[in-house]
């Protein structure tokens, strides 16, 4: 059992938990994720690692209830426990594995949308700890939905909050802030964009136009987290990848976001999953148990 040490509501419909998971905390890196189960019969829920404390043996997760299982998670409090807390899963951010001296020569821009601020934060914090100042843009619909502001301000070289309704910070989408920063003379060697797929799509369209290489963290439907089920299939350039084992980070300018978003919707129904099985042929693993077959 993995004890919850802290549980709090960060904003409307956004929750944070600190969980005692020493082995995960010992080995995890920014960019990776965990899969949690509340009880023996519970659904497997993939969640990005928002923060970790190796000495305390804790992992911080941030989530937004979108279905029955995550809604049930909101009722958990300090002292309760998860039945399973599996990780670290996925590949670490490619930036944290780069040569440190080379990395220090680069100007990096991080862009987060909504709950995407949570997976952005550990990377920004890692950069700060290694003497690298980065620019950070975080967007939300309104000021009340911005999360981790104090933490982000402390870790970022420059922090730029954006709100769609103009209630705080830059008035407008994160894409208009990217354009503004470049117009003001800022040069970026790489951008990391994490958030809803539609936000990452338009961030990538913007950075491609501006000539900024961009990394995205894909968050498609995921079942087993080990590459066996095929639920998190994504097309990257001419290749088929699986976010749980090949990612979750990919070259954003090569990701087929339209297909990924369409697939996400189709996977929600039995008829849609059957159609995906038919369309995807040999590259459709079908081991999720929901497709009416196990090819």
Structure commentary:
With 295 residues, the chain is of the alpha/beta class. It has 10 helices and 16 strands. α6 (174-183) packs parallel to α7 and α7 (197-210) runs antiparallel to α9. The mean pLDDT is 89.
Question: Characteristics of this structure?
Answer:
295 residues; alpha/beta; seven-stranded antiparallel β-sheet; seven-stranded mixed β-sheet; 10 helices; 16 strands; globular
Short structural summary:
The protein has 10 helices and 16 strands.
Report the β-strand fraction as a percent range.
25-35%
Biggest sheet layout: 7 strands, antiparallel
- Number of E-type strands: 16
Strand order of the largest sheet: 6-1-2-5-4-3-7
Distance between the termini: 34 Å
Task: Return Rg in Å.
Answer: 19 Å
SSE blueprint:
Elements: E1 2-11, E2 14-20, H1 22-27, E3 33-37, E4 45-53, E5 58-63, H2 68-73, E6 81-82, E7 84-89, H3 100-104, E8 108-113, H4 117-129, E9 135-140, H5 149-155, E10 158-163, E11 170-171, H6 174-183, E12 190-194, H7 197-210, E13 214-217, E14 233-236, E15 239-242, H8 243-246, E16 249-251, H9 257-266, H10 270-280
Parallel strand pairs: 8-9, 8-12, 9-10, 10-11, 12-13
Antiparallel strand pairs: 1-2, 1-6, 2-5, 3-4, 3-7, 4-5, 13-16, 14-15
Helix pairs in contact: 6-7, 7-9
């Amino acid at each position: 059992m993995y004890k919850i040490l802290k549980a709090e509501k960060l904003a409307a419909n956004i929750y944070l938990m600190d969980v005692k998971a020493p082995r995960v905390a010992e080995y995890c890196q920014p960019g990776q994720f965990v899969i949690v189960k509340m009880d023996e019969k519970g659904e497997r829920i993939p969640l990005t690692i928002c923060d970790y404390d190796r000495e305390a043996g804790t992992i911080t997760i941030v989530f937004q209830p979108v279905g029955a299982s995550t809604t049930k998670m909101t009722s958990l409090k300090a002292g309760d426990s998860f039945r399973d807390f599996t990780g670290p899963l996925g590949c670490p951010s490619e930036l944290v594995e780069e040569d440190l001296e080379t990395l220090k020569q680069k100007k990096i821009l991080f862009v987060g949308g909504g709950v995407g601020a949570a997976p952005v934060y550990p990377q920004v914090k890692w950069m700060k700890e290694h003497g690298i100042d980065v620019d950070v843009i975080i967007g939300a619909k309104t000021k009340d939905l911005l999360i981790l502001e104090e933490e982000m301000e402390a870790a970022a070289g420059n922090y730029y909050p954006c709100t769609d309704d103009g209630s705080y910070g830059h008035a407008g989408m994160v894409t208009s802030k990217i354009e503004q920063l470049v117009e003001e003379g800022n040069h970026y060697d790489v951008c990391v964009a994490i958030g809803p797929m539609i936000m990452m799509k338009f961030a990538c369209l913007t950075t491609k136009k501006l000539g900024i290489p961009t990394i995205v963290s894909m968050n498609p439907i995921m079942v087993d987290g080990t590459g066996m089920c095929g639920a998190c299939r994504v097309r990257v350039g001419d290749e088929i990848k699986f976010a749980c084992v090949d990612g979750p980070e990919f070259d954003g300018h090569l990701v087929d976001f339209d297909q990924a978003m369409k697939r996400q919707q189709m996977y929600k129904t039995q008829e849609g999953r059957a159609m995906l099985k038919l369309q995807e042929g040999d590259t459709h693993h079908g081991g999720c148990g929901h497709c009416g077959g196990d090819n």
